[in-house]
Amino acid sequence: MITNPYLNVDEKKRFPPPSRSEDKPQYVHHVTPKSPPEVSFSFPRRKDLKERCSKYAEVAVFSLLLLLLVVGILFGYYCSSTCLHGLPCGDGGCVWDSQWCDGVSDCPSGQDEANCVRLQGSSFLLQIYSEKNWKTVCSDGWTEQQGRAACRHIGYSRGTYFRSGQKKTQSADGFLTARPDFKPEASILKQLEFSNTCLNNTVVTLHCTDCGSRVNSSRASRSQQASRGSWPWQVSLQVAGSHRCSGALISPYWTVTAAHCVSSTSNPADWTVYAGIVDPLGTLFNPAYPVSQIIPHEGFNSHTRKNDIALMRLSKPLDFTAASGIIGPVCLPNVDLKLADHQAGWVSHFSGNGGGLYLMGAQVSITDAMVCNSSVGHEGRISRDMLCAKETEAGAKACPSDGGSPLVSLKDGLWWLVGESIWGEHCSVNSKPGVFGNVTYFLDWIYHQMKKHQD
């Protein structure tokens, strides 16, 4: 319809204005129609963006959780291994490598200064732990005072010191030398300093006791009753005047025996120690020594006989000098003392009871642990803290019923304490090897107890 612009006002009034329904068609052609592709593209773009954001959020959350998991694992590992860059104290503490064996106790119980001095091999070579290695000590400038201080650090009491010696050796890790200003009150570890060289490569050997040198091996070659002085370290441990077990002297104060011997009677006042006796008359002519302390191994198991070792400390020291070779200590096995399988050994033990107590000696052979653990032996019951010995002749008593009986071996002219009898009452059945506590395995424990209960 065409509107006439020349109509008058009255005529305009006769025609009403167009309705909204009439307006809409008139403006359709003024608006650009949305093409189907644009419509179909517009809404999916927003949905795809939301999906992408959702995926990014999921990945971010997953990555964050994974990161937290890794951090948690690393944190847990760090908490459980606090010594990634140091050494453990043994009770949860940790110290730097440089703090270990520096003469200052940094661990709560002093573990970092406990086992810093040792003796190596049959030559008794003195070695001290320093800067992650065991180092030998130059003999140049070394004095007897420092020798006594080193023995004290190991665990020996005052008055047991024997002598210092010399030996030539090579070292790729350097040496330790004694400072000229010796201070008796200071730790031996603070009185040494590192040196790349050592005069004539001569280093210190150290004997903290005069041990293992008084017995004649020819008298110990057969299974027989022992003569006086044959086994000078052998002692009888008695309760109420009755022999209970054997033991071996390792110093004027200390005796090594089996834990099962003392487990049922742990009061030191109940015990007395006799040294130098070989027959029933021995207790009449030798003094009875009272006991001040009994120290069984804290890990002793009476069923498996693991950690079956104990120490007895006498109230007063034995006088080895006055005994004129009848009484004396056996040597503890130094680190790296090479004792091969089938090496000859000797077991000394008391036979009889009541008034008929006789000291006997028998030759044995140290047996390979695998053979001892086999079906013809003890069927897997032998652990690292044990060793075996088998008789070399009939009736040699390789497994005496006398608990704590010392097993010794002769090497380089000295007698060494290799073991102490722990299964004597059972191993004689079917000719099984005798079972002994492995003294080398317990060496650190022995020294720790000696040092803990020093003078």
What are the key terms here?
single chain; 455 residues; alpha+beta; Mac-2 Binding Protein; Thrombin, subunit H; 2 domains; 6-stranded antiparallel β-barrel; 6-stranded antiparallel barrel; disordered N terminus
Walk me through what this model shows:
- By secondary structure, this protein is α+β, with helices and mostly antiparallel strands.
- It folds into two domains: 113 residues, Mac-2 Binding Protein (Roll), CATH 3.10.250; 235 residues, Trypsin-like serine proteases (Thrombin, subunit H), CATH 2.40.10.
- The protein has eight helices and 22 strands.
- The protein has a six-stranded antiparallel barrel with strand order 17-18-19-22-21-20.
- The N terminus is likely disordered.
Low-pLDDT sequence parts = 1-33, 39-43
Order of helices and strands: HHHEEEEEHEEEEEEEEHEHEEEEHEEEEH
Helical fraction: 10-25%
- CATH 4th-level superfamily of the largest domain: Trypsin-like serine proteases
Q: Structural class, judged by helices and strands? A: alpha+beta
Shape by Cα distribution = globular
Q: How many structurally independent domains?
A: 2
Mean residue pLDDT: 83
In spatial order, strands of the major sheet run 17-18-19-22-21-20
The CATH architecture category of the largest domain equals Beta Barrel
Highest CATH level, the class of the largest domain:
Mainly Beta
| Approximate strand percentage | 25-35%
Largest sheet: 6 strands, antiparallel, barrel
Total count of helical runs of at least 4 residues: 8
Q: CATH fold name of the largest domain, please? A: Thrombin, subunit H
* Euclidean distance between termini CA atoms: 131 Å
Can you count the beta strands? 22
